[in-house]
Here is the input.
Amino acid sequence: MKITKVEALILRPGDIENIADSTQDAALIRIETDEGIVGFGEADASPSVVKAIVESPRSHMLSTGLREVLIGEDPFRIQYLWDRMYQASTFYGRRGAVLMAMSGIDIALYDLVGKALGVPAHQLLGGARHYQVRAYASTLMPDTPEEAREEASRLVDEGFTAIKFGWGPFGLDLDRDVELVAAVRDEVGDGIDILLDIGFTWKNHIIAARQIDRIAEYNPYLIEEPLPPDDLVSYAKLREISQVPIAFGEENTTRHEFVEIFERRAADIVQPDVTRCGGLTEMARIAALAEHYAVPCIPHAWSTGIVQAASLHVNAILKEPVFLEYSVRTNPLNQELVVDGVDVAGGMAQVPMGPGLGIEIDEDAIQRMTVQV
Ligand code: MG
Here is the structure.
């Protein structure tokens, strides 16, 4: 089997608001073979940047667009192709957006090879250790305590036993931060886990520590990204004094960046995103390192049904999975692109057992939402 076509499609169903919701557009990777088998993946990065990284012509041997590396190759050689893409982009890549583009391609290769063999992606990764994983409902923090109560109550009624509120007004008013969390805890009672994503809006680790002291009485499961992702010095200091576990990692790519986080004891929990960190191939390596360093891994996942499915295949192979992140934002990209998406009834996600990612992509929806730039 040979790879004959690699596309990076920009999906954008509507206008883009300046809010922390990356589901407003998407970079979809579609790989075709000479045997007619098609694989889909997603890169959760700026879609126009991903398209350029995939389609760029060769500049020189170590500065080559990713498509050129893949055409004519055997899609079953996933690790070899990962190394080739990494090497061919050495001069402009190694981290960041290139790894995100590689993530989309790597996921599409697992989808394609899984379909060719008739096995789910997790089977290609060594086999499932789990067939269901607890899901947390993930959404933006509303602007007022009243709205936060309403949203929390609605999600509990839908069957979720854990909810994450993030970004939105966090950090604008330190007293309001506490009021919002207090309202959610009061609304849902003690039986529901509450996760908080601060969107690195607390100005330094001392302010963060004080805020955590105030919020701790509402018993949050974790505090996500209280500080900017590169500030590992402050993360290490905060971790030493925080009463609540500190989590981050969604912007980090490659095992090299995660080893630094582990070595510097900067996180209690890491949150690599399979559509950013380097795909299923690199995620499996990061997960093995996390296990070695005894740091729980709760994959970040916030975009279409493709990342939800890919992230669930990751959770399936973790020794001790904690949560699938399940975005409950409703927009065309996470409602229409995947026809038969991840089942989270009762707050438990069922690991897909169909070939590849185990989901069906609606080709008509791709046509409808693809924009030309
Ligand atoms: Mg986050």
